[in-house]
Amino acid sequence: MSKLYNIKNWTRHNLRAWMAEKSIKHCKVQEFRADQIFYWLYQKKAESFSEMHNIGRETRKIMEENFWISSLEKAETQQSQDGSIKYRLLLDDGLSIESVFMPHTSHNTVCVSSQVGCGMGCDFCMTGTMGLVRNLKTAEIIDQVLTVWNDQPEGKNIRNIVFMGMGEPFHNYQNLLQTLEILTDEHGFNFSQRRITVSTSGLLPKIRRFGKEKIKANLAISLNGVTDDVRSKLMPVNIPY
């Protein structure tokens, strides 16, 4: 049996390229179907290929034979007085991560994690005491957004995404970029780039690289100290940079 790919690890351009190759091999998978599949996954929030009723049966069969659609299990939720909800979500390997729904007057925000644990060793951060366990896959970041979204009535006007949960996003750089591409894809979530913020502890080389990327998400730098000496005590990353 051939290995099934988690479709949420793929950008739409990856999927279009795969479908084009399949078409060359006479499997009758039209390239433009990737656009429709992305629409079903991220705008209709489909959980199976069988729900995608405007896609031909043969194409759906080919997708089911090659891909699977992941999801995350909610292990625990905690709600604060201001309406914020913290989710503990289970991964396939039994590890867990945290995501947060944050309500505002005119819109709502989802805060996502990029790693299990964190290797930055910031003095004030509980996650840092875990050390870095592993990077999250693109699908595991995307599924955080979908889990929180589906838990809110009609998505509760979720307009902002912030990478301020567990982990240092720039230590999971490629999966971060793939996630941003899916979030901003017009056939995907279709979030505005200016509605997404990536927070970093201050990895200077990656900050410079990120500024040259095609996707222009907002960048936040965690300071946590009014002087260099104070920040260096709190955040070891400040010493080399």
TrEMBL record:
Q: Does the keyword ATP-binding apply?
A: no
* GO MF annotation terms: 4 iron, 4 sulfur cluster binding; metal ion binding; methyltransferase activity
Ordered alphabetically, the record's keywords are: 4Fe-4S, Iron, Iron-sulfur, Metal-binding, Methyltransferase, rRNA processing, S-adenosyl-L-methionine, Transferase
What this protein needs as a cofactor is: [4Fe-4S] cluster
Name the domain of life this protein comes from.
Answer: Bacteria
**Residue ranges of the Radical SAM core domain?**
104-241
Q: Which Pfam families match?
A: Radical_SAM, RlmN_N
Q: Which biological process, per GO, is one annotated for this protein?
A: rRNA base methylation
Q: Which PANTHER family match?
A: 23S RRNA METHYLTRANSFERASE (PTHR30544), RADICAL SAM CORE DOMAIN-CONTAINING PROTEIN (PTHR30544:SF5)
Please state what the protein is called: 23S rRNA (Adenine(2503)-C(2))-methyltransferase RlmN
